[in-house]
Amino acid sequence: MPLFGMNEPKLPSPEEIQKRLSEVLQATFGGKQSVVSQPSGQSKSSSGGGNRGLHPLLSKFRHTPRDIKEYLDRFVIRQEEAKRVLSVAVCDHYHHAREALNGESFLEYAKQNILLIGPTGVGKTHLIRHVADLVGVPFVKADATKFSETGYVGGDVDDLVRELVERAKGDISLAEIGIVFLDEIDKIATSSKNPGRDVSGRGVQTGLLKLMEETEVSLKNPSDIQSQIQSVIEMQTQRGRGSMHRETINTRHILFIASGAFEGLDRIIHHRRKQLRVGFCTNTTACALESNVLQTANTQDFIEYGFESEFIGRLPVRSVCHLLEVEDLFRIMRYSEDSIIRQYERAFRPYGIKIHFEEEALRKIAASAFQEGTGARGLLTVLERLLRDFKYELPDSGVTSFTVNPALVKEPRTCLTCLLRHGSAEKERALIIAARQFMQQFSEQHKVQVEASEAALIRLAQQAIRERITMRELCGKLFKDYQFGLHLIQEGKLETTKLVLPEEAIDNPEEYLSKLVAQSYHDGEGLQKG
User: Whole-prediction pTM value?
Assistant: First the structure.
């Protein structure tokens, strides 16, 4: 009860609370921390599951598996089986999502989450990223190794779904048809036969299990203090405006795709096959060389590898990506629309340098990349090692184009030295032309006849290169007062003559001009007396 005659304390408004809490967060955690309240009447989902409404993107989805594969062929070389499997699964998934959200499907549907098996650098991430681009849905990638049973970086597996909302710029209905890609999923397998794996992998599998089927994920992370503060602000804002719905995102129509190298899975498969058929492939080394052995993996093999049966059962669509050969790496550079050589063309473009690649050079690069043993990622390793010095030394060297040929691949330093020598000569030649143009424009503008000797032109070019400025900037600085001096020279002499500037005029232009003016008046007086 307030004391008689005293007013009750005035509580701050929600906006003031929001402002003050944002200031506290910035002072405590730094950066641009802020608390943003959800405006009234703009809740983007309800607390219940089921249909959230058909997103316009789904109503336009009319792709066939062949459409998707042909699109992937433009960017991903080889992996024909994986592209076909992925194309069919994606079409099935989104056609069903459209029917379900439109109220047209009443039958039970087994969700077609996907498992891709294959070594690093064979194009698994590339495939999924381009599928998401084609469909137009948000895409989130995370390494399974970042997770633990209690969460990662202060969060948990649910953060994957929350990140989809961020990628969808807050559009929850779009996020609910997004794609989550879990890489290195084999690293969370736990088995007594595979010692050394993370013991928390079983808990991570359990956490992912509910996401891959269907669950409601709160958009506010319960372990994130900023999210909780934001919830308090929203409650203050909604006070007196009716009940407030808890915002969640439903994972029923989110497509989950997992991938991993699964080292050692082939040995489990061989062991099973030998037990099933006596005498089958008794040579373990020969068995390991079978290119299609991973294609025969069944659910029991994955369980023995270290996955829970419920977890691996949520990844029913499985495909194998094969190791890339030298020819595949060559074709990636030569024919892929987003080839890595485009990256190097863009790297040199800001400096006005064009780079060209000969096919034979690309084959040598592919052979070196294959030796790296990291698939397509080896191309970046080899190209960066080959062209790093070129990217450092060629800008502003006078070189406007160069070709990556077999000689450059074999002896890059020798070729770079030749390029720099040639570029320096070309740059000097271009600067000399610019100096002559300046002299001509200067003469026309000030009605005097001024030229520079060849030695002076060379000295000008060298000085411009040394000071890293243009010829117009250099000449403007050196000869800014010459028009006055030259007019004095004309007054001192009886007749106008053409002035050819020597090297001295470049090294010390003011002193040279002063001497010239004094000499012209001395010569003029002598001529008048005579």
Answer: 0.72
